[in-house]
Design goal:
With 360 residues, the chain is an all-alpha fold. The chain is built from 16 helices and 2 strands. A two-stranded antiparallel ribbon has the order 1-2. The N terminus is likely disordered.
Length: 360
């Protein structure tokens, strides 16, 4: 009876927190006092109120898309937008130091915003504010959805199990990387993690990391909704839906950030941490640091054309985007663009300069 009362209390507390988050999102969305003035200054053709709101909505949606495809947090928050962009840095150098990691995030933000808005992102704080609000809104919606509607994706029978922090901490800690060092002590590993692997053998395995279908279902729940994710998990033909995040944001293939994000979200969902934050207040898991580790493994694997990593993208896209022609795996196979590749190779081999031709 006491446990039942505790579960009911936790359910009620979660509902209250969810309502507070939604109320805060609504208040943030309606509060334009610190955003509209810079927008008016930036646009030179006397924009209408609807134009300003359209721009703000576009930036908010860009922030949501960033969370889905690139990352859950910015290293400097809104301050990231004030850092001068250095186009000379590349993803080859991204993980060498903190500054390069920030430049990598700026590069991703610019790509998602598009050239028009990216040109003003460092000088117009309204863009930073709206973008970060979009990120926070997406994180809030995702965390609430995973805990309240997706227990079945984790092979958990009762939804209430995911709403009880104490139960999560004791029941699922081994699944998210807890390593017991004896006498009730231990710590969480970032890679020796059951939920990250398919057919986990107790330690990190390069051949099975990021291949646990649960990670795919988490991503599907984010871009298509929990119902579709459950249908795919149970191999039930899913009805086509028009109003999904995948359609809204034109998401057509998996990205390194999407896989790394799904890995972090899966661990957080089963953790004893109540709020989705860069570092867990209960577990002490540094989710932002672990995300960077996962992202580095994936991005370096793609850049170096490692078959094991490319196969991860091929598997995810085969399941989630079966009709996609833009998979990271396809982009790195010779057959994907053999004609263009052959032409470029011939161009590189042509050593005849134009001035040499003129002399003839």
């Amino acid at each position: 009876a006491a446990h039942h009362f505790e579960v009911e209390k936790n359910l009620a507390q979660e509902e209250i927190r969810d309502l507070h988050r939604k109320l805060e999102d609504a208040a943030n969305y309606d509060d334009d006092s610190d955003i509209e003035a810079p927008v008016r200054k930036r646009i030179h053709t006397a924009p209408s109120d609807s134009d300003e709101q359209d721009i703000r909505t576009q930036v908010v949606n860009a922030g949501r898309k960033y969370v889905i495809l690139c990352g859950l947090w910015l290293r400097l928050g809104a301050g990231t937008f004030q850092v001068v962009y250095n186009p000379e840095t590349t993803d080859y150098e991204r993980f060498e130091n903190a500054q390069n990691k920030i430049q990598g995030q700026i590069r991703e933000i610019r790509e998602i915003l598009g050239p028009g808005l990216a040109a003003d992102m460092s000088s117009d704080m309204c863009i930073a504010n709206a973008f970060v609000k979009g990120m926070k809104s997406q994180c809030s919606n995702t965390s609430s959805r995973l805990r309240r509607q997706c227990a079945a994706l984790f092979d958990i029978e009762s939804e209430s199990d995911l709403l009880d922090a104490d139960l999560r901490r004791e029941k699922f800690k081994e699944r998210i990387g807890w390593v017991d060092s004896g006498h009730g002590r231990g710590s969480y590993s970032s890679v020796d993690v059951e939920i990250l692997h398919k057919d986990y053998k107790g330690v990190f395995d390069y051949d099975t990391i990021f291949r646990n279908p649960i990670l795919m279902w988490v991503f599907v729940a984010i871009i298509h909704g929990p119902t579709t994710a459950k249908e795919m998990k149970n191999k039930i033909p899913a009805a086509q839906k028009t109003d999904t995040m995948a359609r809204k944001h034109s998401i057509r293939h998996t990205t390194p950030g999407a896989i790394a994000g799904a890995a972090v979200l899966a661990r957080w969902t089963l953790s004893g941490d109540t709020f989705l934050q860069s570092k867990g207040t209960t577990t002490g898991i540094d989710y932002a640091k672990d995300f960077d580790e996962y992202l580095e493994i994936l991005m370096k694997g793609v850049r170096m054309k490692k078959k094991g990593i490319l196969d991860i993208f091929a598997e995810w896209d085969h399941v989630i985007f079966p009709n996609s022609e833009s998979s990271f795996a396809n982009q790195n196979h010779e057959s994907s663009s053999s004609g263009l590749r052959k032409a470029l190779e011939m161009l590189e081999a042509d050593n005849t300069a134009e001035d040499e031709l003129d002399e003839e």
